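Re: that chain you flagged

S.,

Sorry for the slow reply, it's been a week of failed gels. I finally had a moment to sit down with the sequence you sent. For the record, here it is as I used it:
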Amino acid sequence: MPQDHTERRVVVTGPPRQTHRATSGYYRPRTEIDEQTTLGHTYVRSLMRTQLRAGLAVFAVLGLLVGPLPLLFAAMPDARRLEWAVLGFGLYVPLVLLARWYVRRAERNERDFVRLVEDR
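Prediction finished late last night. Pasting the structure tokens below so you have them in one place:
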């Protein structure tokens, strides 16, 4: 009888191999965020905290800027034109500058976060 000399494949089962990430000591923060691990959650929470800090700073400055106006207007009851001038023109420039600062700060926070988690 002729024997068939074709090679047979043998399936070997065993423990799974370690991934390249674990063997090289290299970790990827983006992977941690995608997999929603505790470390990834910490990264996202730090971004949220910095954005909240910027928002609260803007809110505090806005409160200090606009909050005393009713007291100022109550102290000067006959100055209706002054009230409109302050509300219409006096607040516009500080509000625009405050908004511009906030947008720049938020974009810088996000840029720093991306630089932290991007692959190198």
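What I noticed first: The chain is about 70% helix and 0% strand.

Talk soon,
D.
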